[in-house]
Amino acid sequence: MNILREAVAMTPAIENLTVYAAFDGRIVGYVPFTEVDDVPMVMQRARAGADIGRRMSRHDRAQILNGAADAIASQVETFASTISAESGKPIRQARKEVARCINTLRLSAEEAKRLGGEVIPFSAYQGSEQRQGYFTQEPLGIILAITPFNDPLNLAAHKLGPAIAAGNAVILKPSELAPLSAQKLAEVLWAAGLSTSQLQVVHGEKHLAEALVRERDIRMISFTGGTKTAEAITRAAGLKKMAMDLGGNAPVIVMADCDLAAAVASCVSGSFWAAGQNCIGTQRILVQASVYEAFVAQFAEQTRQMVTGDPLQETTDMGPMITEFQARRIEQWVDDAVRQGARVVCGHRRQGSVYQPTVLTDVSPESLVWSEEVFAPVVSIAPFEDFEDAILEANRSESSLHAGIFTRNLETALQAAERIEAGGIMINDSSDYRFDGMPFGGFKHGSLGREGVRFSVAEMSQPKVVCINRG
Q: Tell me, what's the pLDDT at 10?
């Protein structure tokens, strides 16, 4: 059934897009299918929405965002069960995503009220003594937001909240694999007073996204997803502002002086949250040799204790991958790694779309599970002797969103923070920590701009200078 689900996502010219549960393939809902021929109408409505957003007061923007947050807070279980059914995220994790979405909207409401400018000291410059003025922050216009399946509610909120706070119109295209949560978020925003032309949700396959990307009147594309898709978007988009949150291959360094039990627990969570389908999920753990054996033993024991299966069950720690196709893909990657010498400590068993959390050692640096983003519940653990070697290995990936280090030594922590090339360095946390108000984005190849509400609002607005000549 899950393979059928992927085929449906590729089927053009249907009235509704059918959404299937990641766990068992049952139908969990429908969303209206948007044809490529509908794009001119979508753009016409977006132009009207941009005009409405530009004229809307900051107070009204904040009121809508807070109203939506209140509405979601009154429906936590409904939103959580939707996330869990369509994406396979365990219900306990889904509730945390709902809480984060509420926080994201409230942060966006605050930024809507703060969004201003500053006075410019024109008279500080010779020849401008008789001038005074200021700048404001104005909306860009129309923003195209493209979101993935792995955090189907909060990643949509991370684009919609700041875009609305800045006064823009938004066209949201969620993943066709998990569109229901984003659709429900839009409905809550409309009910809170947002015009349906300020926010439109379109559902369809890649040809729809390609048509929208090329639209001249779209001023910015905010995309979360894979590097290959991002490259295709940038080639087709032309002169537009871009915000790209792309893949990761997160390293975590475990020093011998750390609290080992805390490091193990944090890394287990960081590796297998959302079945590893997480761009900041812990993928490569580098452990100082003197504690390597103890770390691997404790890590494997906690991993074996994880309950996998039906994500709607309260006892489930890890649900399925988004499709059986993806579960088969990572199964093949691990098979290839084993052929290259890797040892399976635990896991590497699949039943349908559920792939057991998998721990590998002795992994070749050339294998895909080490060198590429796995986006799956697979973690590789390797020993190191010297801190310098750990830093070099941590920096060996071109995908660099987050990294982590566990140590009691402040100087070691600060050295890692200074020298690891990543968008965020988590000290005594795994790579899988994100607060919705902090800047979030990658170093190195591909990643552009920053998310995090205040930083997204800045990306989604533009300064306008007003200068008064008093002479």
A: 34
Distance CA 68, CA 289 (A): 50
- Looking up tokens 């107070």 gives 59
Q: What are the residue boundaries of the structural domains of the chain, listed by start?
A: 2-246+446-468, 250-435
Question: Who contacts 339 (Cβ-Cβ below 8 Å, separation ≥6)?
Answer: none
Residues labelled as active-site residues: 245, 279
H or E segment to which residue 28 belongs? strand 27-32
Residue 224, class by beta-carbon neighbours within 10 Å (0-12 exposed, 13-18 middle, 19+ buried)? buried
- What's residue 444's pLDDT? 83
- pLDDT (tens digit, 9 = 90+) per residue, 97-128? 999 999 999 999 999 999 999 999 999 999 99
Three-state SS for 162-174 is HHHHCCCEEEEEC
Helix (H, G, I), strand (E, B) or coil at 137: strand
Q: What is the Cα–Cα distance from 85 to 316, expressed in whole angstroms?
A: 13
- The CATH number of 250-435, from 3.40.309.10, 3.40.50.1820, 1.10.260.40, 3.40.50.980, is 3.40.309.10
- Can you list the alpha helix ranges (DSSP code H) found in 364-404? 368-371, 387-394
Average pLDDT over residues 5-29: 72
Least confident of 4-13, 241-250, 360-369: 4-13
What 3-state DSSP class applies to 94?
A: helix
List CB contacts of 168: < 8 A, sequence separation 6 or more: 50, 53, 139, 140, 141, 142, 143, 460
Whether 2-246+446-468 and 250-435 share one fold: the answer is no
| Cα gap 410→74, rounded to integer Å | 43
Query: Does the domain made of 2-246+446-468 have the CATH classification 3.40.50.11540?
Result: no
Q: Show Cβ contacts of residue 147 under 8 Å, excluding neighbours closer than 6 positions.
A: 155, 156, 159, 172, 173, 174, 175, 182, 224
